[in-house]
Amino acid sequence: MAYYAPTNVLLQIVSSSIVTSQVMLSNIGTTNLAYSLNTHATSWLACLPGSGQLAPGESTNILFIGDSSAIVPNIYYSSVTLSRNDPNSPAEIPVTFVVPEPATAIVLVLGMIIAYRKKP
């Protein structure tokens, strides 16, 4: 039996085009747990490792990777299917990817506002 936390993933771009988040996957059962992750060919999302096996009591961190280099600013929604050899398989892990407008534009605007000072 598998346990994973958190049960949803939020990826938000701050200062680069790549952002990551981790989900811990644990085997809380009494037999080996085989798992695989499917991102449904979502171009901006990857999971590493994409599959594996956990002994009873063992845990691993799954790295969710969002890449905004080929997409426009927006909020994107998807899910990752977690398939495993337990009775509760598969499970869907919702993923939200926030890609804001480029920060450089905001910095320039703020720079102009901050640079403006009225002479005494």
Can you describe this structure?
- The protein is mostly beta strands.
- It has one domain: Immunoglobulin-like.
- Helices cover 11% and strands 51% of the residues.
- The chain has one helix and nine strands; from the N terminus they run βββββββββα.
- The strands form two sheets. A five-stranded mixed beta sheet has the order 2-9-8-4-6, with no helix packed on it.
- The radius of gyration is 20 Å and the shape is elongated.
- The C terminus is likely disordered.
Q: Topology of this structure?
A:
Elements: E1 2-5, E2 9-12, E3 18-27, E4 33-38, E5 45-48, E6 51-54, E7 59-67, E8 74-84, E9 91-99, H1 103-115
Parallel strand pairs: 2-9
Antiparallel strand pairs: 1-3, 3-7, 4-6, 4-8, 5-7, 8-9
